[in-house]
Amino acid sequence: MFNSSITADDAFVGPIRLQKSSRRPAGSPESFIYLRGAQVYAGSFQRGALVRIVTGCVCLFQTLRDGRRQILDVLGPGQIFGAGQIFGAGLCATVSLGAVAMAETQLEEINGEIDASGRADILQRLLGRSRAHATLLGLKTVPEKTATALLDLATQFPITGVDAARNTSSFKLHLTRADLADWLGMTLETVSRCLNDFKRNGLIEFDRPSVITILKRDTLLSIASGRHTPEETKHPERLP
């Protein structure tokens, strides 16, 4: 879990550029590497820059003055976000916006690669994820939230090599259970209980907290989409 003790007054005092990429060919985009837990500030890039995640994981978040935190999105390799999204958060007296690397992460500027149409597509994709997250927070049940998150993370952070015989897939979980709670609007205890319920009922498996294997993807999709009543999702072992 990353440090959520930053307040709006002292956040965004400057970039933390832990390591500049040393293998950047002449003329290629500006690229930086951040260690796990490092705050990703827009000051590392040009104002308004579009940034692509080359490797790793980034969480976009907001923090209230009293320390409460909401993770707004979790982004993996290939995802693009704007430095302007996390610029100027100190102008707000009540909310601090930011981004943090949840694993060793390489980011690069891509301004020269994207035209106006491409920027519009990126914005539309980000807005789509924002709408989906708002729906998740406002309407979905605990099992629906958890299933939605697992499927999203499995798509973004797959571990190569699927067991075709079992038709399973595994992914790297860069978030702690507490991070998942801050993303899904639940308590740590509720997240842990739901993951353990899914595991006990054969939907997922994990021996380590950081690697999760999906055993019944179709069932998770069914739960995530709300095709079952809240009472039915309390007993996922009864679902197909």
From TrEMBL:
Gene3D superfamilies: Jelly Rolls (2.60.120.10), Winged helix-like DNA-binding domain superfamily/Winged helix DNA-binding domain (1.10.10.10). Keywords: DNA-binding, Transcription, Transcription regulation. Pfam families: cNMP_binding, HTH_Crp_2. Residues 140-218 form the HTH crp-type domain. CDD domains: CAP_ED, HTH_CRP. It comes from the Bacteria. This is Crp/Fnr family transcriptional regulator. It comes from Mycoplana ramosa.
